[in-house]
Specification:
Blueprint (H helix, E strand, L loop, with lengths): L4 E6 L2 H17 L7 E6 L2 H4 L5 H4 L7 H8 L5 E5 L11 E6 L7 E5 L13 E3 L3 H10 L4 E3 L5 H9 L5 E5 H6 L8 E3 L13 E6 L3 H8 L4 H17 L7 E8 L2 E9 L6 E9 L3 H16 L6
Parallel strand pairs: 1-2, 1-3, 6-7, 6-8
Antiparallel strand pairs: 3-10, 4-10, 5-8, 5-9, 11-12, 12-13
Length: 305
């Protein structure tokens, strides 16, 4: 392939690390050189407004929409996204079918005085922008108070150090990519706190009629990651999940089996619906769809307004 490629990415430090990772993968697996691939920084609405919940601004697409518009307008050739920021439905005219090998999907706690969650004082304030994380924390410690926190990782750690919070909960993948592991007070297993669908996954998106790029991206796709997240995101699709949907879903692969675990909370967090199931790996799509349908049924739509 002898051409020039422009990769579009959010301009945050973490997003640019992910974009560079994608660029390096392409260089390693094609005849393209460093000078053939440019990374373009794009500011999204989600980056501009940081004092209210994403759901109040219009949901998950706030981080991906602006980049997708540039892709549709042919101002960029490939969009790089943190998969967890993408809506479960694909944007018309685009294709998201390439996923880099999953980073660590676990959740971590950063606290003042390096305390574990169980050792925080009663009524301690934990910062999160996610209803899922809030309800999961309350499931472990009902006496803790969760308070909205937005902004990039550095901003959140700064707010913690300014004593605005006693602890914050973040994804391990982001902290690890930024080299900030020394700040971690506690790492939760994926069973203790089930991550959101696609957590730790970098997704690459192109136009659905760009055959040359579709073929290029096939060369760097990590199939086990793709199998896992197809199952996870199918749960979201069936639930028609958005930013206000408090759902954790995580798939792991063991040989030729895929294991899927999910928990869904009612709108106020008072009810929890939990499922765990396994299937042959070639049934990953169906497993996600079936689990989504079962969760929808047993929750009686109590998770939606």
């Amino acid at each position: 392939m002898n051409t020039k490629i422009t990769i579009g990415s959010r301009g945050s430090k973490l997003a640019l690390i992910y974009a560079q990772k994608a660029k390096d993968k392409i260089i390693q697996n094609t005849n393209l050189k460093d000078q053939d691939i440019t990374i373009k920084e794009i500011t999204t609405k989600g980056d501009q407004v940081q004092d209210v919940r994403l759901s109040e601004l219009g949901g998950k697409g706030l981080f991906s929409k602006t980049i997708e518009v540039e892709l549709l307008d042919q101002k960029i050739d490939i969009a790089v996204h943190a998969l967890k920021d993408m809506p479960s439905e694909e944007t018309e005219g685009l294709l998201t079918n390439c996923f880099l090998e999953r980073n660590d999907p676990r959740e971590i706690l950063i606290s003042r005085d390096n305390k574990h969650l169980k050792d925080l004082a009663s009524n301690a304030i934990v910062g999160t922008s996610s209803f899922r994380r809030e309800f999961q924390i309350k499931k472990i410690r009902k006496d803790l108070e969760c308070k909205l926190i937005r902004g990039n990782v550095d901003t959140r750690i700064k707010k913690l150090n300014e004593n605005l919070y006693d602890a914050i909960i973040l994804s391990y993948a982001g902290i690890n990519s930024l080299g900030l592991n020394q700040n971690i007070s506690q790492t939760f297993s994926t069973s203790e706190i089930i991550p959101c669908a696609g957590q730790g996954v970098i997704a690459l998106q192109c136009r659905n009629n760009d055959e040359e790029l579709i073929e290029l991206l096939k060369k760097i796709n990590h199939q086990p990651t793709r199998n896992s997240i197809k199952a996870e995101r199918n749960v979201l699709k069936i639930l028609e999940g958005d930013c206000e949907t408090a759902v954790g879903v995580f798939a792991s692969i063991d040989g030729d089996k895929i294991n899927l675990e999910a928990e869904l909370f009612s709108l106020d967090g008072s009810k929890r619906f939990y499922l765990k199931s396994s299937e042959n790996i070639d049934k990953a799509n169906e497993l996600g769809i079936e689990m989504g349908k079962t969760l929808k049924k047993i929750s009686n739509n109590s998770y939606k307004k």
